[in-house]
Design a protein that fits this description.
By secondary structure, this protein is mainly beta. The chain has no helices and 6 strands. The chain has one domain: Beta Barrel (Elongation Factor Tu (Ef-tu), domain 3).
Amino acid sequence: MEDAFSIDGRGTVVTGVWCDEEQRLLVGAMVEAIRPDGTSFETSLTGVDLFTKCFGTSRNIGLLLGEVREKSEVPRGTEVRLIEVASE
């Protein structure tokens, strides 16, 4: 993840590039956040926004982690992995 923003009463939005085109991210999915120091935690997604840049194939993403209250909990370089797909 590249950046994080705390939203009072909602949680923390993390932004970055989603690399796994095969997996669909849905609200309610469980993810694992792995910090650069190797520590990790699990949380659920309470919001997902996906943006495609006009040039190239990178897909920028914003994930709302409702259980994360402070942006300091997800420092730059944190990797987010899908561990349980939400039902549609």
